[in-house]
Design goal:
alpha+beta
């Protein structure tokens, strides 16, 4: 009876009731919408730290380019550019006091792996009949002396190691040549081309050399027995003598009993019985057969440090490393599709990795991607022995990777990628190349938004860093933060407006429906109703009124926020379809878009979800962050609790006054 009377009293003034219902709903909508939007934006800003990462890549550019002539008396090679880096800076200088790295600078090597069970030869290159150049290790005696490294006649006194017959077939099949194996007693022409390292040759003495053919493409004839033979004289050019390229971590050559490759004047020939032991020559000869079975191994600590992984430019058949595998150094690997196809490998199989050497600062100089894996150095140690593996382990293949587009940061074929912590042995004493830092091998991770502070601290702490080029890639973090900052300011403004409006509505509501009802309370008390009944008479309809209005406002805020996000997402998709986020250029065939794929293309990305994988992927991950449901529940409940508490406070105040005094008061 009391509750029904409460609603009757409220509905006696329908105009005010409807007005306050609308105002309460609108105020709640503003309040909840502002609060939900603010919380959502804040959650997305917090999520930015996981979605985005700030990567710094380091490159030491050359100080100058020198054009060095490589011409000699026999051949004209022209002048080739050689890069002069001056003093080579090492990654250790980036570890200055006060540097706050998420991941400190890492200098990723390419490890040289020899595995005779895997064929890494580029079969396509030899499909039309080419063979590898043939080399011979021979002892010879000059028939005439020469002091300047020019051409002289000689006779072979001993064939130490023979490369056998050397065949050549032209790609079109029109010409074929055969170089028969060398024989003892055969006369040849020896020419050192007056190159650095040439030694004088004295008639009658014996010399040892590692020779390759330089006689060009002789015309072949078919003899009476049907065999192909060459009709030209055979000129031999000596290669360098066995040498090592071992360096320490600072790039300093490691001295040994054989010459170092950094010595440009290392000899091309030696006198027999002096200098380098013959078994060392045999080791160098044996290394000539390693080429078919050498591939690279790249250790990584975090895929985000590599651009192709960071920008999702790699597709994997199988799966990617897990964080646990990277952290614990699990013996798992990703392999390049080319080596997988050539050796019938697939995920789940195991391969043996025998690491012989490490190459730091390795950069691709060919300009063609992907290129064959290079060997920038010698696999001989300082004593002339073939380097033994410093680490050998069996790895399980968990994925086979390919590139969406041509990649310059992973430029080599047949590379196996492994967790860096899985390689537990040191490569000290096995470093055969240590070049300057480059943007593909040296990188680090910073806390998002700190690159300006880091750059300033680095410049102050490490003055020589001005010789380095450091490129920062935050994957759009700065733009995302700027956009979210604007949204957060808007949400905060809506929240304040909604809060002020709610307070104003609550004050007016209490004034008209509680304070102005004190005489009604006095009458009810005079009629014998208890204080509890008087409270219920005022609060029942008021709280129901407030709860319905606040609930409607909260529900409207939820619908409105969801609709605004769908509208924004649709607008973004429309912008992408119309190329607003792309660089559009005019060409002879019309307007084309630069999709950042290594060229200019005139295709649409509407039905190509991979075309903007880096941007869309991050957007999708951020859009997945939504407001918790409790925001829409707690906000109206808190508003109802506020109205109920204040109304109860005011009613209790009226109940403490004698009814006769309330009836005699004004208002």
């Amino acid at each position: 009876m009391t509750i029904r009377n409460s609603f009757k009293q409220l509905l006696r003034r329908p105009g005010k009731a409807i007005l306050f219902f609308v105002l309460m709903t609108a105020a709640t909508l503003l309040l909840v919408f502002g609060a939900a939007m603010y919380i959502e934006v804040q959650l997305r800003m917090d999520a930015l730290e996981d979605v985005y990462s700030t990567i710094g890549t380091v490159k030491q550019p050359w100080d100058e380019i020198k054009y060095v002539s490589h011409d000699n008396d026999c051949f004209s090679y022209g002048a080739y550019p050689e890069e002069d880096y001056g003093e080579i800076l090492r990654p250790e200088i980036l570890n200055f006091p006060g540097a706050e790295y998420v991941i400190p600078p890492e200098n990723r090597p390419y490890y040289v792996t020899y595995n005779p069970e895997l064929n890494t030869r580029n079969g396509a290159m030899f499909s039309s009949g080419f063979t590898d150049p043939s080399y011979d290790l021979i002892e010879f005696t000059p028939l005439e002396s020469t002091t300047d490294g020019s051409k002289t006649r000689a006779v072979i006194t001993r064939v130490i190691l023979s490369g056998g017959e050397h065949y050549f077939y032209s790609p079109d099949g029109t010409n074929s040549w055969i170089y028969p194996a060398v024989e003892q007693g055969q006369e040849i022409e020896v020419c050192q081309h007056k190159e650095p390292g040439s030694i004088p040759l004295e008639k009658g003495k014996k010399y040892i050399g590692y020779f390759g053919y330089t006689s060009g493409n002789p015309v072949s004839e078919v003899s009476e027995d049907g065999e192909l033979v060459t009709t030209s004289n055979r000129e031999y050019a000596p290669m360098y003598v066995p040498s090592t390229s071992l360096v320490d971590r600072a790039g300093n050559p490691v001295e040994g009993k054989i010459p170092h490759q950094d010595d440009e004047n290392r000899p091309r020939l030696i006198e027999a019985g002096e200098g380098i032991d013959e078994h060392i020559w045999e080791n160098m000869f044996e290394l000539n057969g390693y080429g078919d079975y050498i591939h690279g191994v790249l250790p990584i600590t975090n895929p985000d440090l590599i651009e192709s992984f960071r920008n999702s430019n790699i597709t994997i058949r199988g799966r990617m490393f897990t964080e646990e595998e990277l952290e614990t150094g699990a013996k798992v690997c990703l392999i390049d599709k080319s080596i997988a196809d050539r050796n019938f490998l697939y995920d789940g199989k195991k391969i043996k990795l025998s690491l012989l050497a490490a190459m730091y600062g390795l950069g691709n100089d060919s300009g063609y991607f992907p290129s064959s894996f290079p060997l920038n150095g010698s696999l001989l140690d300082g004593d002339g022995n073939i380097l033994e593996p410093f680490f050998e382990e069996e790895y399980e293949i968990i994925g086979i990777y390919t590139f969406r587009t041509i990649s310059a940061d992973l430029p080599y074929k047949d590379v196996v990628i492994v967790p860096a912590k899985s390689i537990t042995a040191s490569d000290e004493g096995h470093i055969i190349h240590n070049g300057p830092m480059n943007e593909h091998n040296v990188s680090f991770m910073l806390k998002n938004g700190t690159q300006k502070e880091f750059a300033a601290a680095l410049a102050e702490a490490v003055p020589q860093s001005e010789r380095l080029t450091i490129t920062y890639d935050d994957m759009g973090y700065s733009q995302a933060v700027e956009s979210l900052d604007g949204s957060r300011d808007t949400a905060f403004l809506l929240l304040i407006v909604g809060l002020l409006a709610s307070i104003a509505i609550v004050v007016l509501l209490l004034y008209f429906f509680v304070i102005k009802e004190k005489k009604r309370t006095a009458i009810e008390r005079s009629l014998g109703q208890s204080k509890a009944s008087c409270r219920l008479s005022i609060l029942a309809a008021l709280m129901a009124f407030t709860f319905i209005a606040a609930g409607t406002g909260s529900l409207s805020a939820c619908i409105l926020l969801g609709s605004s996000e769908q509208l924004a997402e649709a607008q973004n998709l429309d912008d992408e379809d119309n190329g607003s986020e792309l660089s559009v250029v005019e060409s002879a065939s019309g307007y084309k878009s630069d999709w950042g794929l290594g060229g200019i293309y005139n295709f649409s990305g509407q039905f190509s979800p991979w075309a903007m994988w880096d941007i869309s992927g991050n957007k999708a991950e951020l859009m997945a962050v939504t407001v918790p449901l409790w925001v829409y529940i707690i906000s109206p409940l808190a508003l109802c609790a506020l109205v109920g508490a204040l109304a109860l406070l005011l009613i209790n105040r009226s109940l403490r006054i004698e009814p006769i005094l309330l009836l005699g008061s004004k208002g």
